[in-house]
Amino acid sequence: MRTLIILILIIFSLSYLVNYLSTSGKLDEFFDNHSDLNWVPGVEFYIATFSNLFGKYDSALYRFQRIVEKYPKTEYAPSAQYNIARIYDSKGEKEKAIKEYEKLLNNFPNCQYTEISIKRINFLDESLLNYYDNN
């Protein structure tokens, strides 16, 4: 039990530290100055993922967009692009979600998210058409 409490405290402390570094701009500055390091895109991806899990969607979007823009050739870029689309999708911003799914299909046509992105675009397109037909 004691180990679990210590682990939880460590996680919350790290979360607080990352949040502080993110909001102060120091984290971006560090990443920008060290973008040549192989592990930087992965760290940004995991920060974005944790932000998304904790409901900090704007922060997650920002980090995922940085990955797509700054590290488009890395293994993290397709997942980041997919997560951007999913966040908009979950927020009910259908037109933005469709646009982001289409970016995924255009930039990463053979990734693991291709099939589900096509399905989501078709579903969202259909629901948008129904919305506009009823209004």
Number of helices: 7
Q: What's the CATH H-level homologous superfamily?
A: Tetratricopeptide repeat domain
**Percent range of helical residues:** over 70%
Domain count: the total is 1
Uncertain segments: none
User: CATH top level?
Assistant: Mainly Alpha
Give the SSE order as H and E letters.
HHHHHHH
Mean pLDDT: 87
Oligomeric grouping of the chains: single chain
Overall geometry comes to: globular
Distance between the amino and carboxyl termini:
57 Å
Strand content: under 5%
Major β-sheet, in short?
none
What name is given to the CATH topology?
Answer: Serine Threonine Protein Phosphatase 5, Tetratricopeptide repeat
The second-level CATH architecture is Alpha Horseshoe
Structural class: mainly alpha
What Rg, in angstroms, do the CA atoms define?
A: 17 Å
Instruction: Please count the beta strands (DSSP E, at least 2 residues each).
Output: 0
Q: How would you describe what is shown here?
A:
This protein is mainly alpha-helical and 135 residues long. The chain has one domain (38-134): Serine Threonine Protein Phosphatase 5, Tetratricopeptide repeat. The chain contains seven helices and no strands. It is globular and about 50 Å long. The model has no long low-confidence stretch (mean pLDDT 87).
